[in-house]
UniProtKB/TrEMBL annotation:
Subcellular location: Secreted, Extracellular space, Apoplast
Source taxonomy: Eukaryota, Viridiplantae, Streptophyta, Embryophyta, Tracheophyta
Species, as recorded: Gossypium raimondii
Function: Dirigent proteins impart stereoselectivity on the phenoxy radical-coupling reaction, yielding optically active lignans from two molecules of coniferyl alcohol in the biosynthesis of lignans, flavonolignans, and alkaloids and thus plays a central role in plant secondary metabolism.
Protein name: Dirigent protein
Quaternary structure (record): Homodimer.
Length: 183
């Protein structure tokens, strides 16, 4: 474990699994022992609607299509989350949650999602993501409102950005950057 050239307050460098580097540093004396954790993970989003999809529309208004741009459509997701963009890279956990198209014009979606860790270092811990964003934007940002296990009292934010998208099979690899403070 090498010393990190971030600043003199760096106390811990956790390596989760094989290659994902997670920085945990004290957030500062005023923050009462809070640590800051920053990591990037990758969601594998299969949304073709076939039975093995990891994202599916479950309900919407009668007489309307249940799609991403239709106000009132509710989706559920259970995406594999890995350390790298390759689906075969080390598993981190699952992205399990719901999201609803919540603007009448079909632009915004409200997300309520748990990142459920299953890797050795954080097994059983969760991060709770919640917020509303323009789903068409290249970078979507949501709040982190809480967490469990290693991430109790977490607060912060995440960004989601498509890393790759194969439209012929509706398969997106989405990078999720997590920045949180927690005890
Ligand atoms: C979604 O469904 C609505 C009708 O409910 C339709 O007007 C709209 O074009 C559809 N959007 C896409 C991207 O297919
Ligand atoms: C995570 O915890 C579950 C249940 O406690 C256990 O079955 C599983 O082997 C653990 N996974 C890892 C990677 O430690
Ligand atoms: C999309 O996926 C299909 C089926 O796996 C594959 O044949 C194709 O090469 C992929 N396209 C891109 C651009 O990766
Ligand atoms: C990003 O991925 C989502 C699927 O998760 C897809 O609906 C959207 O079209 C993709 N956006 C871009 C810009 O490729
Ligand atoms: C996410 O983190 C990676 C480094 O892991 C960085 O290259 C990328 O710019 C970050 N994305 C955003 C939206 O901040």
């Amino acid at each position: 474990m090498a010393a990190l050239p971030i600043n003199t307050k760096v106390v811990v460098l956790l390596i989760l699994g094989t290659s994902m580097v997670v920085f945990t540093i004290p957030a500062g004396k005023a923050d009462d022992g809070l640590k800051q954790t920053i990591m990037s993970v990758y969601f594998h989003d299969h949304s073709s609607g076939s039975p093995d999809s990891t994202v599916r529309a479950v309900v919407g208004f009668p007489g309307k299509l249940w799609n991403l741009t239709q106000f009132g459509t509710l989706f559920v997701s259970d995406d594999p989350v890995t350390e790298g963009p390759d689906p075969e890279s080390a598993p981190v956990g699952r992205g399990q949650g719901i999201f609803v198209t919540t603007s009448l014009d079909g632009v915004n979606t409200h997300v309520s999602l748990s990142i459920v860790f299953t890797n050795e270092a954080c097994n059983g811990s969760t991060i709770q993501v919640q917020g509303n964003s323009d789903q068409m934007k290249a970078v979507r940002e949501y709040g982190v409102v809480s967490g469990t296990g290693k991430f109790r009292y977490a607060s912060g934010y995440v960004t989601f950005e498509n890393f790759s998208f194969n439209s012929s099979i509706s398969y997106a690899v989405i990078r999720c950057n997590i920045s949180i403070r927690h005890y």
